[in-house]
Amino acid sequence: MLVAQGVEKAFGGPPVVQDVSFTLARGAITGLIGPNGAGKTTLFNCLAGTLRPSAGSITLEGSRIDGLRPDQIFGRGLARTFQIPRPFAAMTVLENVMLAPAAQAGERFWANWLRPGAVAAEERRLRDRALHWLDFVGLTRLAQDPARVLSGGQRKLLELARVLVAEPRLILLDEPGAGVAPPLLAIIMEKIAALNAAGTSFLIIEHNMDLVSRLCRPVMVLAQGRLLMQGAPEEVQRDPRVIEAYLGA
Ligand SMILES: Nc1ncnc2c1ncn2[C@@H]1O[C@H](COP(=O)(O)OP(=O)(O)OP(=O)(O)O)[C@@H](O)[C@H]1O
Ligand SMILES: [Mg+2]
Q1: CATH number of the domain that residue 50 is part of
Q2: pLDDT over 50 (residue 248)
Q3: I want to staple 20 with a disulfide (CB 3.0 to 4.6 A). Which of 7, 45, 54, 62 is the partner?
C-alpha cells in the first residue's frame, strides 16, 4: 500500500524524524507507538503532505507522493485525522462532515452560475454521503447541532466521518483513543475493525496499549525520530529496547 524510504524531517536543528523506512501492507491495521516527542505526528505530517520531508521518498500504491500537497495526497486515497480535532465550532456537525474537498472553489463558482441544477444535485449527493457516514459513527442525533457541543470523543468520531466521506483506501489516525471515555473508545475500535474488514488500510498512532494490542498488526516503534523495531504487539511490549525507550523518555 505504502512504502517509505529514508524519510527525514528537520526543523532547522537536528532531525526529529531520521532515516525512517517501512512498508504498510494493503489491508493491514499498522500501529505506530513511541514515547512523547518521538516524532510520530511529524512522520504522519510527512506522509499526508502537511510537511515536506527533508529527505527520503514516500510511495503510495506505486506512485511517489512526497512533495505533493495535502489535497493532492487526499485525492489519491490517503486521509488523516488530527491528534487534536478542531471542527468549525459554529457550523453544524453535518456541515463539518460536508466540508470534504470536492471541486475547486472557483470551478464551483462558475458551475453554480452556469448550471445551478447540477450543483444542487451534487450538494444533495454529498449531503446523503455525509449523513450515511454520520450514521455509521453514531452521530446522526447530533447532525444539526453546532460542533461545539461535541465531547472530545465525539469530535474524534466527527473527524472519522469527515474523512470517510472521501472513501479513502488508507487512513492515518493520530491518537483516536486520546481523551475518549471507554464506552466511546469501544465504539471507535469497532468502527475501525468494520472499515478494515471492508478493505480500508490503517496506520494508527496510539498510546492506549489495549487498542494497539486488539487492533494493530504489526506495530512499529519510533523513538527519538528513528524506527526502533516492528513486530506483533506482544513482541513489541516485552522487547527490552522498547521498554528502555519508554523509561528513558
Ligand atoms: N513545527 C515544528 N517545529 C519545530 N519542532 C517541531 C515541530 N513539530 C514538532 N517538532 C518537534 O519534533 C519532535 C517530535 O514531535 P512530534 O509531535 O512529532 O512527536 P509525537 O511522537 O507525535 O509526540 P506525542 O506522543 O506527544 O504526540 C518534538 O521534539 C517536537 O517538539
Ligand atoms: Mg503526536
Answers
A1: 3.40.50.300
A2: yes
A3: 7
Q: How far is CA 163 from CA 28, 75, 223, 226, in A?
A: 18, 11, 28, 28
Which atom of ligand 1 is found nearest the CA of 207?
25
Count of structural domains within the chain: 1
The whole-number pLDDT of residue 179 equals 84
What ligand has the least distance to the C-alpha of 43?
1
Q: Is the CB of 18 under 6 A from ligand 1?
A: no
Strands ordered across the beta sheet of 226-231: 78-80, 170-174, 201-205, 29-33, 219-223, 226-231
What's the average model confidence in pLDDT over 44-69? 97
Task: Determine the structural domain holding residue 204 and report its residue range.
Answer: 2-248
Is 67 in contact with 58 (CB distance < 8 Å)? no
The phi and psi torsions of 247 (rounded to 5 degrees) equal -65, -40
Cell of 149: 457541543
Would the CB of 16 count as within 6 Å of ligand 1?
yes
